[in-house]
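Inverse folding, one chain.
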C-alpha cells in the first residue's frame, strides 16, 4: 500500500488566532503565519532573508481545538492544502492564497510541552474507542557484535 501524503507547511503564528463561524455555523479558525527563510553561503554559514507572511484557516472541531491551544508566537506544523482566494480590501480586489489546515500541531523541534495520553472524552460519559496496539509490530533492532572495546574520556 502506498504512503498517503499531503501538502504541509511550517511557521510561526504571527497574529492572534481568531475563531468565527461560517454561514453554516461551523467553526472557522484564522491566523496569519510567518515563515523565516535562509540562504546557505559558500562558507557553510546561513544568511537570514526576509520573513514572508501568509494566511491559514481551519474548520470544524479541529478549529476549536487549535484555537484553545495556539497563541501568537507558537511554532507549528500543519497538514492540508493551499488554495487561491479573492477578496476585497479597502475597495481593491486582492488575489492571494491561503493554507487550509486539516491537522495542526506544535513544532517539536522548537516547542517544549508535556503530552497528555489519557483518553479524550468525546461527549458526556463517552469513551474514545481503544486502539489495538498489536496491529503494529516494531521491527526488532539489529544486534551487531562489537569487536573493539569502547574508549571513554
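Residues assigned per position:
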Amino acid at each position: 500500500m502506498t504512503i498517503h501524503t499531503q501538502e504541509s507547511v511550517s511557521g510561526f503564528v504571527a497574529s492572534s488566532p481568531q475563531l468565527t463561524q461560517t454561514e453554516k455555523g461551523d467553526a472557522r479558525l484564522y491566523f496569519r503565519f510567518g515563515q523565516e527563510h535562509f540562504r546557505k553561503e559558500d562558507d557553510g554559514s546561513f544568511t537570514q532573508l526576509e520573513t514572508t507572511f501568509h494566511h491559514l484557516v481551519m474548520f470544524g472541531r479541529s478549529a476549536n481545538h487549535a484555537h484553545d491551544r495556539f497563541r501568537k508566537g507558537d511554532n507549528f506544523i500543519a497538514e492540508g492544502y493551499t488554495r487561491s482566494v479573492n477578496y476585497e480590501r479597502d475597495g481593491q480586489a486582492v488575489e492571494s492564497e491561503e493554507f487550509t489546515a486539516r491537522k495542526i500541531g506544535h513544532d517539536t523541534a522548537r516547542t517544549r510541552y508535556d503530552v497528555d495520553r489519557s483518553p479524550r472524552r468525546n461527549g458526556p460519559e463517552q469513551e474514545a474507542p481503544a486502539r489495538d496496539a498489536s496491529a503494529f509490530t516494531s521491527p526488532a533492532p539489529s544486534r551487531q557484535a562489537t569487536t573493539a572495546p569502547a574508549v571513554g574520556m
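Residues 61-69 form the longest helix (9 residues). The chain has a mean pLDDT of 87.
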